[in-house]
Amino acid sequence: MGFAILNGEIIERVNAFVDVEDRGYQFGDGVYEVIRVYNGRMFTAKEHLRRFVRSAESICITIPYPTEQLMSLLEKLIQKNSLQQGIIYLQISRGITPRNHAFPVGDVAPTLVAYTKEVDRPVEKLKSGVKTILVEDIRWLRCDIKSLNLLANVLAKQKAAEANCFEAIQYRGRDITEGSSSNIFIVKDSVVITHPSTNLILKGITKDEILRLCTANAIAVVERTFTLEELMQADEAFLSSTTGEVMPIIEIDKKIVKDGVPGPVTRRLQAFFEEEIKSKCGNL
Ligand code: DCS
Questions:
Q1: Where in the chain is the domain with CATH 3.30.470.10?
Q2: CATH code for the domain defined by 123-281
Q3: How far is CA 225 from CA 1, 198, 229, in A?
Q4: In Å, how far are 124, 135, 168 from 164, measured between CA atoms?
């Protein structure tokens, strides 16, 4: 798409360059967000920007604009790019300075970039469900920060891609944490179960929406850790993410989940989630 934001200004994307000594590039020293756009409107933008600020604060980066200003800048970017269905990618890094691990001394401005990408809803996959594999969670202990450092996630997703799967589900010890770029839920005896939002996972915006939708619709839900064995014996399983929404899992490591089709609780939650999108962003 034609335009990008670089440090508060909307410029042609081909001119949006960052220096080789940007700390985001060299150290992954920054944080990011992915915000969904439906019908030219951002979905749960406030929640994403709140998490963006929190992630940045937790690594001592201050976003140089008030959230309202950033929000209107992103709205302008959507308009400039005539984006209907897609995403905004937004990142901030600690800025440009001669390479040295410790934070730069003095006033170094952070680098903020954003651009858009057209992305359709994964309609077919949402209907049929997806296959997954299991991988060991080898990430650091601050997975609650949406850090640019995604090496372990990249390696996990690559394993999934090589196995012709949509996602890699990570486990730490015997406990399931989350996908390489998604949260995971299981359903057992009509109870929805997902990992609590601790330092070991990213507190997904979609996850929080789903928790809310469960409560609002009298679906029993609990945030607690669950094991590999519980996952393999679940009645249903699904992933959640900004781009994947409520994505049914039909296979894990070549083993079929229950009947091998998206389960009834998953389908109900998909319907509630779609209603939520429609009420905020219009018909899909
Ligand atoms: N867990 C991880 C590790 C993620 O990277 C993501 C989203 C999630 C959970 C789900 O969070 P949201 O519901 O807030 O999206 N990853 C984004 C990404 O990198 N691309 O798309 C979404």
A1: 3-118
A2: 3.20.10.10
A3: 41, 10, 12
A4: 16, 14, 11
Give the pLDDT confidence of 12-48 residue by residue, as tens digits: 999 999 999 999 999 999 999 999 999 999 999 999 9
Residue 132, classed as helix, strand or coil, is: strand
Q: Which residues line ligand 1 (CB under 6 A)?
A: 34, 153, 178, 181-183, 202, 204-207, 240-243
Distance of alpha carbon 163 from alpha carbon 281, whole angstroms:
35
Please return the burial class of 14, using the count of CB atoms within 10 Å of its CB with bins 0-12, 13-18 and 19+: exposed
Residues 106-160: tens digit of each pLDDT: 999 999 999 999 999 999 999 999 999 999 999 999 999 999 999 999 999 999 9
Query: Which ligand 1 atom sits nearest the alpha carbon of residue 153?
Result: 3
Q: What is the CA(156)–ligand 1 centre distance, in A?
A: 14
User: What percent helix, strand, coil does the chain show, rounded to 5?
Assistant: 30, 30, 40
CATH 3.20.10.10 domain position(s) in the chain: 123-281
- Report whether CATH 3.30.70.1710 matches the domain 3-118: no
How close is the Cα of 88 to the center of ligand 1, in Å? 13
pLDDT at 158: 98
What's the confidence (pLDDT) of residue 1?
Answer: 72
Query: Residue 153 carries which side chain, given as an amino acid letter?
Result: N
